[in-house]
């Protein structure tokens, strides 16, 4: 549907994502996010929990598998998606409906945690040619890059030199001076 409201919620998973497959073999991961608003009580000068809200969410296909393998009960997550009405029939034959968030994006909250992200192969058209550093497998910290397409963002962050990357690093070499002098001035133009 075109006019489904897009919302973002932050909360904790109430259980591990439940992975199932439709009769057509499509993977679906379903989970619930508990989001509890907090506000400061002006009289007591203390933070108080508001009424918790439980939002049922679902992710589909490869996304479902990534969610089921990566997230677990209690994790704080950020979820963005389209709010839809889910109509279903209970085992007793009753018709029911409820709101459900069709997940567009989900990730762990890094407010109180650290995460290491591993890129999956075959997802999207990101760096399909593996011509840059992020499409290469760093092979662990300090190890040379390897199999393109296996991609990973693993390793420790470093502001001096990124992990992974291709064997060819154009910035590690001095520029070749053309015949008759330098192509660059010693001083920047500003």
UniProtKB/TrEMBL annotation:
Gene Ontology terms for molecular function: single-stranded DNA binding
Entries under SUPFAM superfamilies matching the protein: Nucleic acid-binding proteins
Top-level division of the source organism's lineage: Bacteria
Keyword Transport: no
Classification via InterPro entries: NA-bd_OB-fold (IPR012340), Primosome_PriB/ssb (IPR000424), ssDNA-bd (IPR011344)
KW Cytoplasm (keyword) present: no
UniProt-listed NCBIfam families: PRK07772.1, ssb
Quaternary context: Homotetramer.
Name by which UniProt lists this protein: Single-stranded DNA-binding protein
Organism field: Actinotignum timonense
């Amino acid at each position: 549907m075109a006019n489904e409201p897009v919302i973002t919620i932050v909360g904790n998973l109430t259980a591990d994502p439940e992975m199932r497959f439709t009769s057509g073999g499509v993977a679906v991961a379903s989970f619930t996010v508990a989001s509890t608003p907090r506000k400061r009580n002006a009289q007591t000068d203390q933070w108080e929990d508001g009424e918790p809200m439980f939002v049922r969410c679902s992710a589909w296909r490869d996304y479902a598998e990534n969610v089921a393998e990566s997230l677990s009960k209690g994790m704080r997550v950020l979820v963005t998606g389209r709010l839809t009405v889910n109509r279903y029939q209970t085992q007793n034959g009753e018709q029911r409906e409820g709101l459900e968030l069709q997940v567009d994006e989900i990730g762990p909250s890094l407010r109180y945690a650290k995460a290491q992200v591993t890129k999956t192969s075959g997802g999207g058209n990101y760096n399909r040619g593996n011509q840059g550093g992020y499409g290469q497998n760093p092979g662990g910290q300090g190890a040379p890059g390897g199999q393109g397409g296996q991609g990973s963002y693993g390793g420790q962050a470093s502001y001096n030199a990124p992990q992974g990357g291709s064997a060819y690093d154009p910035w590690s070499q001095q520029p070749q001076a053309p015949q008759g002098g330098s192509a660059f001035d010693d001083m920047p133009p500003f």
